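Sample entry as discussed:
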Amino acid sequence: MGGQTAICSIEQDKLIYRGYEIHDLAEHATFEEVAFLLLEGHKPSAAELTRFKQEVIAERPLHPSVTSFIESSAGWLASGRAVPMDVLRSAVSILGHADPDCQDNSAPANLRKAKRLLAKIPTIIGHMQNVIDGRAIIGREHGGDPALDHAANMLYMMTGKRPSKDEVHVMDVSLILYAEHEFNASTFTCRVIAGTLSDMHGAIAGGIAALKGPLHGGANEAAMEMLKEIVKDVGEKGIGTSAVDDWMQRAFDTKRKLMGFGHRVYKNGDHRAGILFGLGRKMAATKPGGFGGIPAGKWFDLGEQVQKIMLTKKNIHPNVDFPCGMTYFTMSIPVPQYTPIFVASRITGWCAHVMEQHADNRLIRPLSIYTGAPERKWNG
C-alpha cells in the first residue's frame, strides 16, 4: 500500500508540485516562489513572496558553533576522510542544537525550522567551499549579500564573485527541478524518521545521508566524473568520433554501471533532463575559454553523444543528474559540491514531507519477508 501526499505527483510525462507542472514552474517561477509553494502550500502573492524572502534572508547567518565546525573540518576534507556531504550532514545536526524550536514538532515551529534550513544550507555550502579553497569565509556575519536572491547568493558565497545573469538563471532553474520528487529514497528516509516523532533536523540529517549515495543524489557527481574519464581516455579530438562509441562499448562489455541514466519511475525519459540540458548548452555557448582543458560546449557535444549511444544500444534515457553534471561543471562549480547543492534545493521538499508526516502521523513500519533458516533447536 502506497503512502498519501498532497505535495507532489509523478507521472510518466509530468512532474507536478502542488498542482503545478515542472515545465510551467521552470519557465515562469523562481526558486523562492517554488520554495514558498512547497513549504506554505500555495502560490504566493507578491506581498507573501516579499515577506518570505525577507524571512529567509534574515536567517542566512550561521550560529558560531556551526561556522567553527566547518572551519575545523578542513583537515578531514583535505585528507578525504570526509566529503562535503558528510560535513553538511553534521552541520545540519549542529544547527538543530542551536535552533530554539528544535524539539517542537508543532506546525508553526516546523515551518520556522524549514525556513531556517532553507536559508542556512547555502551558507554552509559557501563557507565550506571557502574553507576547501583556503579563503577567508565570506559573509561570516551577514550570510552573504542580502541584496542577492537565493541562487545568486549561494554562488557568490562559494566564489566571492558576482555570478552572471545567465549563471543565476540556470542555477535557479536547477534548484526548481531538484526541489521535490515524491517518495524517493531520501524523502522516504525523512518521513520514516519523522514518523517516529523525531525532530526535523534529525530527519533532514537522515535525508542527507541517503542522498549522499551514488545511486541517488551522488549520481550527478558520478556522471561528471564519467565524462571526465572519457575525455581523459579519448582526448578532445576523440569527442564526436567512434572513440567514444568504443569507450561506451567497453563499459557495456564489462557491465559497468553508467551514472546519470535510467529512473525507477520514468520509463520514457526524465522530462527534467531535457530542460536542464537545453539551458546548460545555451549557457555553455556563452562561456569563453575551456573547462577541464576543453571548450565548454564540447562537454555538451560529448554528453549528447553519450546519451544517443545509451538510447540506441540500451534504450535507456538520461535522468536529470546527467545534464546537471555538465551544467555545474561549465559554471566552475567543484564536482564534490554538486550533491550539497542538490540538498539546498531538496530541503524544500524534505521539509514539506516532514511537516505533512507530523501533521497526520502514523509510524512507518514496512513488512519483511523472512528468508533465513527454518526453526531449529539450539541443543538439537
Remarks:
- The chain is about 60% helix and 5% strand.
- The mean pLDDT is 94.
